[in-house]
Amino acid sequence: MKKFLMILALMLVAALGTTVMAQDTPVELRITWYDDGNESAVLREILDRFEAENPDIKVVIDIVAYQAVLDQLPLQVEAGEGPDMARVTNFDAYKGYYLDLRPLVADAALWESSFDGAVLGALQSGEEDADAIYGFPNQFTVTGPFINRTLFEQAGVEVPSDSSDAVSWAEWTAAAREVAEATETPYAVAIDRSGHRFAGPMFSEGGMLFNEDGSITIDTPGFRTMAEQLVGWHTDGITPAEVWVGSGGSYAAAADFFTNGQLVMYMSGSWQIGNFAGKIGDTFDWSAVPNPTGDGGSTGMPGGTMMVAFAQTEHPEEVARVMDYLVQPDNAREFTEKTLFIPAHLGLGEINFVTEDESAKAALTTFASEVPKLSEQAYELQFGGRAFAINNPVRDRLTQVLTGELSLDDAIARIQQDVDDALAAAAVS
Amino acid sequence: MVKTLLFPVTSVMGWLFRLIISAFDLIMQPLQNRLGVKGMAYVFIMPNLVIFGIFIILPMLLNFYYAFTGGTQLFLENRPFVGLDNLTTLFTCGNFLDPNSCREDLFWRAVMNTGGYVLAQVTLLVLFSLVTALALNRNIRGRGFFRSVFFYPVLLSPVVVALIWRWILQQDGLLNGIIVALGGERVPFLLSAGWGQAWVVIISVWAQMGFFTLILLAGLQAIPSEFYEAANIDGASAWQSFWGITLPLLMPTMFVVLVLSLIRAVQVFDQVFSFTGGGPGTATVYMVQYVYTTGFANQTKEYGLAAAASLVMALFLLVLTAIQLRLGRRSEIT
Q: Both A178 and A234 in a single domain?
C-alpha cells in the first residue's frame, strides 16, 4: 500500500510538472514571409516588442523565396499543412482557407476604418463572406519605371519626363536607346517577366481586358501595341534576353541589371525603392518616373501584399492578437517608414520615411502621385478575382512569341483560350 | 582482461537477443502452424507489400481516378467526374506533328521535346558509357583514379549539377567569360532553343554516364579472358574481337543499360527544371514538367489534366518496356 501511494504521489508530481511546463511554454505561431528588401527585419523588431508584451506567444518568421509563395504555399494550405499566417500577393489562391478575424479581434471597426473596403474585399469569396476580415494590406504598390539618371546626364540626353507630362513608351524607348548607345550601356530598357508588370503599359497603350458584360477580351489594339514593343526590344537586342527568354516558366525581375548600372530604364514598381536605396547607394543617381502615356492614358498597376491568417491554425485567438497588434497605427507606421513602402493603412497620418537617400524619397513621392492615375481596368485586374487566370498566360505566351514558337496572332488566341479554360475550371469546383 | 570487463555487457546483450527471438517465436510459431511453411513467405513479404501498396499502388489508383475528374479542388470529394474530357482535351489535335494545331499545345510540345531528348540522350549515353567502359577495362595506368573521376558526377545532386552548369553557361558565365577573353562574342547558350536543348542532353549524359559505365564495366569483366586468348591465337584483330566476342556477350548488360536509361530519360525532370526551367520558351519542357506545371505550379491547378497526362506517359513507358522485353527475349533465343 505504501509503495502504491508512493507511485501515485510521483505520478501526480510528474503530471503537475507537465502542466506547469505546458503553461510556461509559449504558443508558437509561424508566418511564411518573403522579402523584397528589409521587411522581415522590420517585422521582427515589431514582433520582438509584441513578444515582450505577450510572453505567452512566440512568432517565428519563415522566410522563403517569392516563388515559393506563388507555387508551394497554395498547395501547403490546401493540404492543411500551411502556416498560421503569411504574406501573400496571390489572394485568389487561398480563398476558402482564410481565417475570419472579425469575431476575434479587439476592435473590428478599427480594421474597417484603417483599410479600403475594396482591398479587404479582395480576400473575400463573394456575398456569402462579404462581412469577413481575413487579413490586412501591409503594403500598397504601384508599378512604374525607374531610370538611371546619371547615364542620361553622361549621354547628354534630356530625361523626357522632365519637360513633358505625357511621354509615350515609344519616346522613352528611343531616349533610353540613345543613352545606352552613347554610354555603351549594355541594355536600354527592361521589364520584369510578369503579366502584372506588362499590364500597366498595356492598359496605357489602350488595351482593355474587361468588357461591360463581364467577359474578357485579350485581342485589343492596345494589347497588340505593347506586345509588339516588347518583341521589338528583344529583336533589337536592347533588353536583357535573360529576363523573359532565359527564365523558364517563372517570374523574373530585371532589378540586378539596373542596380549593376547595366540598364538605362527599368519597368518594375514601388517595392523596389528600398532595394535600390540599399544596393545602389551613391553609385549613381536614379529616379522613378511617371508611367508612360498612350491611348489609354498613363496607368500603372496597383498591387501590394496582404498579411493573412489561415483557418487551419490551431491558435486562432493568438493569431488574431498578433494581427491586431500589427494593424495598430504606430506599428503600421513604423513598418511603412522603415520599409519605404507606400502605406495601405489609411490612418497613419504623417509618414517620415527612414532614409537619407534623396532618390528614394523622390521615388516615393512619384509613386504616390501615380495612385490617382490608376485606371479602372487596372483595379479590376488586380482586385477583381480573375488575375490568376490572366497574368501567367500573358507572360508565358508572349515568351513563346519572343522565342519564335508562336506568332503574336497565335499567342493572343492561346492566351484567350488559357484564360477561358482557367475560368471554366475554377467555375466547375 | 578486456574480455572479462566486457563479459557483463555481452551477457546482457545475449539475454536481450534471446528475449527478442523468444518474443518473435511466440508469434511466428503459431502462425507457421496455421499457414504452413509456404504461407510464411507471404508473412515475410507483407511489410514490404504494405509499403509498396501505400506509396506506389494507392497513388497510382488515385492518379487514375483524378484523370477522370475536373475542377481545381484538391480533394476528390470536391471534384466532379468528367469522364474522358481530360483525355479528349489532350488528344484534340489537327496534326499531331504540329503542336500549334493541338488543343493542349503545351502537352504536345512536351511530347515532342521528350521524344527528341530521349533519342539523343539515350544514344549518346549508351555510346559514351560503352566507350568509357571499354577504356577503363584496359590495363591502363591510374585506372582506379579514372573510374572514380567518371563516377563522381553520379554522386552529385541533380540540382547541384544544374546550378553549376547554369553558372558556367549563363550570359555572364564562365564559358562566355573565356570566349570573350579570347576575343569571341558571347554565345546565347541558355537563350536559344537549339543551344538549350543541346546542353540539356550534354549535361545529363555527363551526369549519368558514370553509373552506366559501371554496369557495363561489370559486364565486360564477366567475359572470360580465354575467349580473347583463343581469338588472339586465331589472329583476330581487336576490332574483330570486339564485334565477335565483346558485343554479343555484352548484349544482356547493354539491354539492361538501354532499358534503364530509356525509362530514366522519359522521366527527366529535376535536373532540367533547375537548369533551364523549361526554357527558352518551352524548348526544354518535357512530359514530367508539363504534368508538374499543369497540376502544381500554374495558378489554376488542373489536377485532372495533369493526371491524364501522367497516365498517357505511364502507358507510353509500359509499351516501351514491353517492346524492349520482347526484343530482349528474342535476342536471348537467337
A: yes
